[in-house]
Amino acid sequence: DDRVETASTELIVLEEPLVKFANNYGTITGIAGDTEFLTCQAKHGRPVGKFIWKQVNPDGTEEKLETSEIAVSPEKKPGSGVFDAEETLQIELKPSDNEGKIICTYQQYGFQDD
Fold first, then answer.
1. Tens digit of each residue's pLDDT (9 = 90 or more) over 32-47
2. How far is it, in rounded angstroms, from Cα 70 to Cα 78?
3. Neighbour tally for 82: CB within 10 Å
4. Which of 2, 39, 94, 111 could disulfide-link 22, Cβ–Cβ 3.0 to 4.6 Å?
């Protein structure tokens, strides 16, 4: 009588997304008091992460910015765990913002260097 035993392990492969601004590139020119909307996209990522927004002021100081909720598309292929995500930041332009920067980062968990 033959006896067969099997062992298995699950593979979870993480994918880094392409992160970019959807509607603005480079420089925003506006008048103090104007409202601008910046949309940051993370394309084809697994797992879903979160967006972190910050403003770097001309003097080098940084300020974390709050946004509305993240919008996540349905999975690219059902069961794949691969998603597109985007989040929009609303900012009112102030004279003190001149020559500052807005940075959008998409943070996923589970990569080896986390």
1. 999 988 888 988 888 8
2. 20
3. 17
4. 39
Nearby residues of 109 by Cβ (< 8 Å), 6 or more positions away? 47, 49
Tokens of 97: 């913002």
15: tokens are 């994918």
Partners of residue 50 on adjacent β-strands:
107
Which two tokens mark 60? 């080098």
> b or e along 11-24 (b: 16 or more beta carbons within 10 Å of the residue's beta carbon)?
eeeeeebebeeeee
The reply to whether the predicted model has a pTM over 0.85 is: no
The answer to whether residues 84 and 22 touch, using CB atoms and an 8 Å cutoff, is no
* Average pLDDT of the residues in 38-65: 89
CA atoms within 13 A on the CB side of 113: 2
